[in-house]
């Protein structure tokens, strides 16, 4: 399995025979070189969206159109994107699990954030913010989405038992590094943790040292854009 950071909260996950894009934000993403957009999305088979903020869905419709990858996520958000021209995937809800190909599944789990998009000059609610549990190749990956610490992490960790955590950890809009370390230690038993939603803007944390220091015995990997993490 290859986990490839596209900057901010965006990922390309190559798992089994699937290429799953998580919240792919390319245009306007300060960490994503313009000449790498094609490499980031090439061969995509599915797109999963966690919530409706611009830095997570701005490019989803165009990427879906160009790759043919269906878009799945929270009911209201997935329907909104399909109505805008995205290839229709699963408009499902928290607690549901969908297949991605024959050997990969994506369960939707809660997050604690907000979810809206702008319709003209007015915000439009996009249902609940979410995370995902991705399973395949003998791994269970918890993708937190944008979130703060929440009690739901207790049952998510206990029920799904993820060995890999992709955690929003930049602070200001989400957990910071200290909070992410606390949540990982209290609620999960990760072997590997990959921070995200950081380094993009000045308001966000720029290093994962606090996270790594707070999780002795866990492999905390600071990702680099477009460099595969092989697990």
Structure description:
With 231 residues, the chain is of the alpha/beta class. The chain is 22% helix and 31% strand. It is built from 7 helices and 16 strands. The strands form 3 sheets. The chain has a 7-stranded mixed sheet with strand order 6-5-4-3-2-1-16. The chain has a 7-stranded mixed sheet with strand order 7-8-11-12-13-14-15, covered by helices on one side. A two-stranded antiparallel sheet has the order 9-10. The longest helix is centred in the C-terminal third of the chain and has 11 residues, at 177-187. The radius of gyration is 16 Å and the shape is globular. The N and C termini lie close together (5 Å).
Structural class: alpha/beta
The total of beta strands comes to 16
Fraction of residues in helix: 10-25%
The Cα radius of gyration reads: 16 Å
Concise account of the structure shown:
With 231 residues, the chain is an alpha/beta fold.
Task: Give the SSE map.
Blueprint: E1 2-5, E2 11-15, E3 18-22, H1 37-41, E4 46-49, H2 54-57, H3 60-67, E5 71-74, H4 75-83, E6 88-92, E7 97-100, E8 104-110, E9 116-119, E10 122-125, E11 130-136, E12 139-143, H5 152-160, E13 164-168, H6 177-187, E14 192-196, H7 209-213, E15 219-220, E16 229-230
Parallel strand pairs: 3-4, 4-5, 5-6, 12-13, 13-14, 14-15
Antiparallel strand pairs: 1-2, 1-16, 2-3, 7-8, 8-11, 9-10, 11-12
């Amino acid at each position: 399995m290859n986990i490839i950071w596209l900057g901010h909260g965006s990922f390309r996950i190559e798992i089994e025979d699937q290429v799953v894009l998580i919240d792919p934000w390319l245009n306007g993403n300060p960490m994503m070189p313009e000449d790498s957009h094609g490499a980031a999305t090439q061969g995509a088979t599915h797109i999963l969206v966690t919530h409706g903020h611009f830095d997570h869905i701005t490019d989803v419709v165009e990427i879906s159109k160009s790759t043919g990858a269906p878009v799945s996520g929270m009911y209201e958000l997935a329907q909104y994107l399909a109505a805008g021209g995205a290839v229709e995937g699963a408009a499902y809800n928290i607690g549901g699990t969908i297949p991605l190909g024959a050997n990969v599944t994506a369960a939707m789990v809660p997050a604690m954030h907000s979810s809206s998009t702008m319709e003209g000059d007015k915000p439009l609610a996009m249902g609940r913010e979410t995370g995902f549990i991705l399973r395949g190749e003998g791994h269970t990956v918890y993708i937190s989405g944008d979130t703060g610490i929440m009690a739901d992490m207790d049952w998510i960790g206990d029920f799904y038992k993820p060995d890999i955590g992709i955690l929003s950890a930049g602070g200001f809009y989400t957990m910071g590094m200290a909070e992410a370390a606390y949540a990982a230690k209290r609620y999960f038993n990760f072997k590997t943790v990959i921070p995200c939603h950081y380094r993009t803007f000045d308001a966000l944390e720029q290093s994962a040292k606090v996270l790594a220091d707070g999780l002795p015995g866990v492999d905390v990997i600071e990702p680099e854009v477009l460099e595969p993490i092989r697990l």
